[in-house]
Amino acid sequence: MREPLISVRDLRVQFHTYAGVVNALNGVSFDLYPGEVFGLVGETGCGKSVTGLALLQLIPPPGEIVGGQILYCGQDLRTLPPAQMRSLRGGKIAMVFQDPAAALNPVFTVGEQMEMVIRQHRRVSRRDARRQAAEMLRAVGMPDPLRILNAYPHELSGGMQQRVMIAIALSSGAEVLVADEPTTALDVTIQAQILDLLVSLKKERGIAILLITHNLGVVAETCDRVGVLYAGSVMEMGPTTAIFREMKHPYTQGLLAAIPHAERRGRFLSAIPGSVPSGLQIPPGCPFHPRCAFAWDECRNEIPSLLPVDEGHWVACHLYGRGRR
Amino acid sequence: MNALLQARQLTKHFSLGGGWWHRRLTVRALEWVDLDIYPGETLGVVGESGCGKTTLGRCLIRLIEPTFGEVFFRGENLLKLDRATLRQRRREFQMVFQNPYLSLDPRMNVLDLVEEPLRAHTDLRGRALADRVTELLERVGLAREHLYRYPHEFSGGQLQRIAIARALALNPVFVVLDEPTSALDVSVQAQILNLLKELQVELGLTYLFISHDLSVVQYISDRIAVMYLGRIVELGTAEQIFSNARHPYTQALLSSTPLPDPQARRSRIILPGDVPSPLNPPPGCSFHPRCFQALPVCATDEPRLIDVGDNHFVACHRVR
Ligand SMILES: Nc1ncnc2c1ncn2[C@@H]1O[C@H](COP(=O)(O)OP(=O)(O)O)[C@@H](O)[C@H]1O
Ligand SMILES: Nc1ncnc2c1ncn2[C@@H]1O[C@H](COP(=O)(O)OP(=O)(O)O)[C@@H](O)[C@H]1O
Ligand SMILES: [Mg+2]
Ligand SMILES: [Mg+2]
Questions:
Q1: Is the CB of A271 less than 8 angstroms away from the CB of B262?
Q2: Other CB atoms within 10 A of residue A283 CB
Q3: Distances (CA, A) of B73 to A49, B172, B291
Q4: pLDDT (tens digit per residue) in A70-99
Q5: B22 has which bridge partners?
Q6: According to the model, what pLDDT value does residue B137 have?
Q7: What is the side-by-side strand order in the sheet with A313-315?
Q8: Which residues fall within 8 angstroms of residue A70, CB to CB, at 6 or more apart?
Q9: A182: left (phi over 0), alpha (psi -120 to 50) or beta
Q10: Pocket test for ligand 1, best of A17, A23, A49 (most atoms within 8 A of CB)
């Protein structure tokens, strides 16, 4: 049996705002294995980014992790001393964001930034660091690494900036890459290049990737396993084919049925009524019950737990509760 | 069938910079576009950011002045109209934008927002005006209780409903929908797409549906125009574009668009490089530096949009 690289257990995150307490994550659990892309998918505000930030212990105030564990190599990252956490972050665990321009430092060249990262994590000369940086740029498919090393971030397109971010993650020797909507700001032909790159990193270097996205097409084409988030809870989790072919949760079913594509031409889409609840007012019981066509009393009062329905396929829905399958 | 709207050689260049110490730069946003739009159809416009979709939509209804070319609406040249007649015609065209947070005035409540076009362009007042507003709101799925609320109290999907109600207030015939669902989540996008379809049938509307998302465009459109660097590179029925795409760019776009089906693994065409800048488009076919099928002629001669059969138009030297 493979060991997970990261295990998230019952993670709870709150933001204390003037308007009240925002329950951003309400007990999220999942495992991330080496050499897999695990997709975290869901609609705006469901807690995808907060999950990614929590993994790196980067929840900004007024937010805080109020419960649960994040185990990496058997250690709970929540109890790790800040200095150790800092070297892990941007080292073994790296992150890329939707907006690479904001993550890169505008006053240093790409080469200077990569050298700094490399020399933070390894004792090498500047010349060696630069050589490694060029190698990493080549590894992420940059056509002309030497030119890119001397370029400033603003001289690069969004797609190239994202490649640089990924190269920086590689040069620090990352085992885990948290990618939060890495292609959302890119055009689709460029998105295809970046997704291809992520999949090759997984295959060739065994990197574990947590791919955060709202795009179900991206999930279907790149992820090995998927977790579907709704209002800070995992509603369904399993192998990508199971989620897309034998989805069990009414929310997953609704989400997939709502996607427009060529084969649905001429028909109305089946839309989910209503809209996503705010983190300030998460409905009691199953958070999806006000929008669910199958909801009954139990759904309004009791939070369903995530239970297995098949090998590696988990669902949090009273329709599939104990003794009902 | 007679076209409702015809664009001929429609061209829009923007000048940037200027001043005596700078060379003036020209953004070739729209180049020589010929397009017919038929009554009651949805014409989808798809292409990557900066390819000129919004500029096309705005030039068609003369929200901005084209640099060159003509637009005919029911045979009448829109670009030759005087101000008074143009104001009259304007009621027949409307535009819905991507971001309702920006397109709706945050200081106006729903009643004011929907009333505004009616007050400006019609004689409706008092009871008749109030009735029309309620009718419009109900038509887009909002209730009377929403009348006195302000934009910040609504979700993105509801705001887009308000924007649609405003656009429909004057009974337009042609509506430019510029990425109307791009800021919405998929479950809400489905609600809005359904609403747009219903309204089209009920009110006999003609749509120009602009999106960077090929899946959405394929779902909603009768015909599709694919744009690249200010030009239409392929134009055909949704069926022709989906199952018989002839332009290499359309083929790449189709194969790069992720499908929500893990078993639909296609041999993906990954285009190299980035979209060139419209400040300095490549000579010949502007797609040739990224094209996987380029011929020597593509670097020098610009391909014309030609009919390859059944009103399926392609601009490519490979396609004859
Ligand atoms: N800095 C913050 N202050 C207050 N609430 C926040 C903050 N960041 C996130 N949230 C809340 O946490 C929830 C999850 O947000 P997020 O993880 O960003 O969602 P998404 O799935 O869109 O990435 C939302 O309800 C959001 O409003
Ligand atoms: N007002 C403007 N001034 C200068 N350039 C503009 C202006 N509007 C659009 N452009 C440029 O024209 C090109 C086409 O833009 P646009 O029509 O908005 O593309 P799309 O809607 O397909 O993303 C882009 O390069 C854009 O930067
Ligand atoms: Mg997010
Ligand atoms: Mg646009």
A1: no
A2: 15
A3: 48, 13, 36
A4: 999 889 999 999 999 998 998 899 999 999
A5: none
A6: 94
A7: A93-96, A176-180, A208-213, A37-41, A225-230, A233-239, A313-315, A307-310
A8: A6, A7, A8, A9, A11, A54, A55, A76, A77, A78
A9: alpha
A10: A49
- Looking at chain A, the whole-number percentage of residues with pLDDT higher than 70 is 98
Pairwise CA distance, residues B119 & B123, whole Å: 7
Residue B258 has pLDDT above 80, yes or no: yes
Strands B174-178 vs B93-96: parallel, antiparallel or unpaired: parallel
Atom of ligand 2 nearest to the CA of B55: 17
Please give the single-letter amino acid code of residue B187. Answer: S
Q: How many CB atoms lie within 10 A of CB B88?
A: 11
CA distance B123 to chain A (A): 36
Residue B189 CA to residue A324 CA, distance in Å, equals 33
- Residue B118 tokens read as 């009616």
d(CA A217, CA B75): 42
Q: Is B165 in the pocket of ligand 2 (CB under 6 A)?
A: no
Residue B238: list chain A partners with CB under 8 A.
Answer: 262, 265
* Residue pair B187/B210 in contact by the 8 Å Cβ criterion: no
Asked if B117 contacts B108 with a C-beta cutoff of 8 angstroms, the reply is: no
In 10 A of CB B125, how many CB atoms? 11
The CA distance from A120 to the nearest CA of chain B, in Å, is 32
Quick: pLDDT tens for B6-58. Answer: 999 999 999 887 666 667 789 999 999 999 999 999 999 999 999 999 999 99
- Domains plus CATH for chain A? 6-92+175-189+206-323 (3.40.50.300), 103-172 (no CATH)
The ligand 2 atom nearest the CA atom of B52: 17
Length of chain B: 320
Shortest CA gap A73–chain B (Å): 31
Protein residue with least CA distance to atom 5, ligand 1: A15
Per-residue pLDDT tens over the stretch B164-203: 999 999 999 999 999 999 999 999 999 999 999 999 999 9
Give residue A227's identity as a one-letter amino acid code.
Answer: G
Nearest residue (by CA) to ligand 2, atom 18, is B54
Whole-number Å distance, alpha carbon B52 to ligand 2 midpoint, is 6
What SS3 class is residue A198? Answer: helix
Give the count of alpha carbons within 13 A of A108, CB side only. 11
Q: What is the pTM of this model?
A: 0.94
Collect all residues of chain B within an 8 Å Cβ-Cβ radius of residue A261: 215, 218-219, 259-260
Q: Are A228 and A252 in contact (CB under 8 A)?
A: yes
Got the DSSP string for A255-292? HHHT---GGGTTS---PPSS-PPPTTSPPSSSTTGGG-
Q: Which residues, 6 or more positions from A319, have their beta carbon under 8 angstroms from its beta carbon?
A: A248, A250, A294
DSSP code of residue B263: T
